[in-house]
Amino acid sequence: MNIKPASWTVGHPCINNKIKPSQDKAVEIDKSNFIHREEVFGTLLYPKSAGPTYQGGYFIENEYSGTMILNAPVRLDIELTYQCYHNCIHCYLPNKKNVHMDKNMAIELLHEAKEINVIGVQFIGGEPYCYPHIVELVDIAKKLGLKVEIFTSAFGIKKDNILATRDFLDRVAISLDGSLSIHNAFRGHAKSYDSVLEAIDLFTGHSSFTSVATVVTRLNVDEIPFIYNIVNKLGVDSLELNAFKAVGQGMSISKYHIPFNELVGIIENKISSLEGTTQIRKPDILYTVGKFTFFGCGSRTFTAVINPFGNLLRCNFVRKDYGNISDMGLKKLWNYSNQVKLSQLAPKCKSCLYQNRCGGFCDLHKINKV
Q1: How far is residue 358's CA from residue 287's CA, in Å, rounded to a whole number?
Q2: How many C-beta atoms lie closer than 10 Å to residue 218's C-beta?
Q3: Of 46, 191, 253, 345, which residue is least crowded by CB atoms under 10 Å?
């Protein structure tokens, strides 16, 4: 059976100032499968399950032409720790120190997220399973009614922590960069590859949705068929092919970055003959289905990041700090970051018909043409 890629091509409408959001009116959306949240400009629809087709983003049902500012983040990415047992050549962090978020801060953040109607949280790092209270936080978040996701590199972590959390996760994403030699070279450890395969086996069939995430560079782009075949064999729900961002530690391999327009075509070629049941999510950013707009990248529109010190960022890669939750609280910081981002829009973005859907041009594009 031929696979059906989980997203539609083309990507960001501003690339070359020519591309419009792609259209696929044949796709029908069953609104009963979504959480509904009312906004000033219309109804926000967020998938109840990570779902292969809708994972990672949300829909807006409207034909609104003004600026879209959400009342609260849809998803909150919480960097619980910078600790990690890897030394990845493509890591977006400039350095990794063994810094953990204060436990009380993390608990208060979860409660405030629920109070302001955040739909879900994603625990990230560093390595979130290095955080000493990860099991407790997953339990608290689920009891609050939040959707809970974890993004893990699956190395050097306690098996007991996986077993204690896997049945309560709405989604887990596990990093895999290629075959044994390629993956271990990327990660800087000879036993990383085997650890990832063991983790995939532990999670698959337990968390609601299991993804494998691959950062695609010129060093591993030819590994895509291998990666797909192995994760399909292991029963993974989705393979996420993500664009490499040459920031942080990744600056050391910046020459292996693939520009977005080129990357989309390369990936299409690599996956065209693959067969299996595992869905593929390509690095598209924004596309529409009839009058519904799907948002892939959330840094301009629907996500916020809280680092271990409690500072709010809007992008993991462009690490601009908008203030600390201890000083202003999550709601005020969210509103403030939106106002700052609006004030910094380029003139061509302010006049663009699609600005309300993408939130403005990607900051990373200025750095390495993502």
Answers
A1: 10
A2: 15
A3: 191
